[in-house]
């Protein structure tokens, strides 16, 4: 069982967000039992929705195979009917499918707005204990209360079980909260009741959009969600690094209870290589004032502030949420005065002329253009190269030829990408821009330059005047 409560008035709007009416008990057949949604309380001040999963042990045994985590005796004696697990995560995903997508035609603004939520799971397997629960939920803004459950209160000397009673509270968008649970329930349990195939990578990327790439325990989460399948884990981490420059993508060391799953090879992630390549190029061209157009959560901005060569650093994004993340990453509220004087953050669209874009030595569009609808690219080009006209412009974008190196990837690297270019398409676009606006352009690879398909990221460096390479 899990319960979701809110005090956002009128609290009964929770029914609209979940697409489940508070006045009815609704049943949903699962391959392993029945899921029911009901509302123990529902008034203007407070509303609680409960998802109860009744697991049928016979159906569960019939649906399991020898590749499931605890075959043999486990199909007769197990905790699945009594504790939250991947069974509950699957039921949640199916029952609240529309809510997870963030769509609510009746209340679209509320669906996009963080609201106060309290979520309780009375019995949650947690391999790693209360500390792991806090480690996984707190980075997303949750306040976590994880109370260990004793093996037997009558015999305290036996110690605690691996189960916790978990309550999380926070002001979070409901769709995000549901996706947090969908991913983290099987991660905490460190088991899944079904075979994990390559399509699980896509499920993880979709459910983790907007938070997983920025999570400090992303490697642990990815490894456990994918049942420690190294090839799928590496593919997922590579794709998370492609989402943007939101995080330092590294392999976290495994927690103590799973040393056998340690990764033998630690690689430098692509987004780290990309960020370093951009900073190095800015140093080479002698830029002192830099504007990051589409700064996301501000990791490039932070790297530029760490280098005293850059006397003015500006981050711009159309998303106010991204700017809030950037402000939090940069510790804007307690930034030293001298560092704060070099920094500016503001919200703006890159397809509309903005005088604040002007008077910079260099502008950076790092993994940005592929998020722009092709018909709007001309507007972005006019704004950046025609109106702002910085001395240098650095553009990076995925090389779609390299996509075949990502196991399990179907389509583009991210659901928000409007296109992905191969090397010839990117060179053609960049050369035309340079000719049209009086720039020269040179190209360089970022990441491993595969002799067959090229690098994973391609970079163009534009400069006013001179000759193109």
UniProtKB/TrEMBL annotation:
GO molecular function, one term: RNA binding
UniProt enzyme class: transferase
Gene3D superfamilies with a match to the protein in the record: Hen1, N-terminal domain (3.30.1610.20), Vaccinia Virus protein VP39 (3.40.50.150)
Region (Disordered), start-end ranges: 447-469
Domain spans labelled Hen1 N-terminal: 1-241
UniProt keyword Transmembrane helix, yes or no: no
Enzyme Commission no: 2.1.1.386
A Gene Ontology BP annotation from the UniProt entry: regulatory ncRNA-mediated gene silencing
Catalytic function, reaction form: small RNA 3'-end nucleotide + S-adenosyl-L-methionine = small RNA 3'-end 2'-O-methylnucleotide + S-adenosyl-L-homocysteine + H(+)
CDD domains xref list: AdoMet_MTases (cd02440)
Keyword tags: Magnesium, Metal-binding, Methyltransferase, RNA-binding, RNA-mediated gene silencing, S-adenosyl-L-methionine, Transferase
UniProt KW Ion transport keyword: no
Essential cofactor(s): Mg(2+)
Domain Methyltransferase type: 291-384
Homology family: Belongs to the methyltransferase superfamily. HEN1 family.
UniProt protein name: Small RNA 2'-O-methyltransferase
Organism: Antrihabitans stalactiti
